[in-house]
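hiii, so i know i said id send this last week but things got crazy w the move. better late than never?? heres the sequnce for the chain we talked about at the cafe, plus the structure i predicted for it. fair warning i was half asleep when i ran it
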Amino acid sequence: MKNFIKSIRITIAFCILFSVCYVLILWVFGQFFGPGKGNAETVTLNGKVVGAANVGQTFTKDIYFWGRPSAADYKGDASAGSNKGPTNEEYLAEVEARVDSFLVHHPYLERKDVPAEMVTASGSGLDPNITPACAYVQVKRVAEARGMSEETVKAIVDKMVEKPFLGLFGTEKINVLKLNVALEEANPTVK
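okay and structure toks below
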């Protein structure tokens, strides 16, 4: 019985340590050393918050750059991949439908030129970023839809490329929401 009571005490102590103290330490660290003082980075347009920078959104209009498809429809409570493998017929049909849809909006591309990233969902379903290559294939569509020159839109894309951390960790990426906000700021007459 003595060992049983001792094990209960140890269990309670570890529960407090790992569920309260550990979280508190992470919170304090985030407040002093984390970006945005531990709070989510929000993106604003005309003084109004339009979204969180670290969670993707669905953009379907031709005047905007599109992000990756989401198996979770960009809902945080449904965040997950589809768990469908590359040999799953249903998954392959979804990808083919996405390729066909992408080509309808980008008739200047050939099937082989469609980036795989633009037709396959991310693992979390919340990915806010695309590679620069995915943005560059959309420049012509966005420029035509906005009545802007391709050079101007490409210059905006170039400015929005985020380099790898310390030049080593990660890959170049573009936050789709921030890119679309930059487009709205450059060409606010489009509704």
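btw Helices lie at 2-33, 89-105, 132-136, 139-146, 150-160, 176-186. thought thatd interest u
miss u guys!!
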